[in-house]
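Posting for a labmate who doesn't have an account.
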Amino acid sequence: MKAIRLTGPQTLEMIEREIPAVAAGHALVRVDLVGLCGSDLSYFSKGANGDFVVREPLVLGHEIVGTVIATASDDASVQVGDRVAVHPVWPSPRAGDREVAADLAAEPASFLGSASTSPHTDGGLQEHLALRTERLRVIPSELPPRAAVLAEPTAVVLHALSRAGDLRGVDAFVCGAGPIGLIAVLALRHAGARRVTVSDVRRAPLDLALRIGADAVVDLTGDSGAPSSADLVIEASGVPAALEAAVSIARPSSTIVQLGMLPRDPRPIALSGLVTKELRIVGTHRFGGELDDALRLLDASPEAAEIVTTVRAFDDATGAFAALADPAVTGKVVVDVSGALGRRG
């Protein structure tokens, strides 16, 4: 089988390797689609993601959907032929498994496509993966691959929103209309938010936000500025200035959820409003048992497929990363490893 490895900053190589053996308790998954995100871009462009430095060739990609082609397990929840989303973390908690989810925050865990462990853990930019069946979630039969590939980032968003409490009837504001911000629009609507406003410095993703359910948008390059009040602010851009704006937007005694990954280096921003408004700010990282809920949300949201705007073939992974780095590209970038979107959209 073929695999694409990162061997240095902005350097990918395609190699041949053996199809992995299927050990007891595992399934062999044909990788169909792999979504790319900011951590993949950081590894590709800098050879590191925060503290995690690539010290050996690494197969990137943790947003994975595929098809089960063989099993060596008595786990009846997964059958040959099932389309599946892959939980990138091991152990892989399910909904309600709070103890395991809490342990993931306290102890190092294996994460697909990551240099956080040594040896590194290869991810999805290869034609096959052998995985424990507990990591696999069967994709609803009517959910198209183009939407199903959003399962992992949707689980990230659902975990973030769970930190905000009851969302029914809230006036929500989302800072940033990247893929995570766009998914937040879907999730907020599904959770019963009364009104959802989205801001960005680019017009195209704002137009996409309106198409998938935002009530209003704020183009930060214009003169109108952001509204001065919201019950809940989701900071999804990871830009320090957006956190400063979130403090201004939030109503007194309301909540800010910091969903975007902020830079590690010091940045001067004004946060006095946290005190004078008695705001609650909460951080959020990855997810635990929300992958099942993510698939249900996507299955109920046919507009989700519009968030995937850029698809590149497996042999054009370099082009996929170029698109991911291009600020003019709107929405999610996906690598079609098996030609799945040619078979079923």
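Reply:
Got it, the structure tokens are right above this. The domain at 164-283 is CATH 3.40.50.720 (Rossmann fold).
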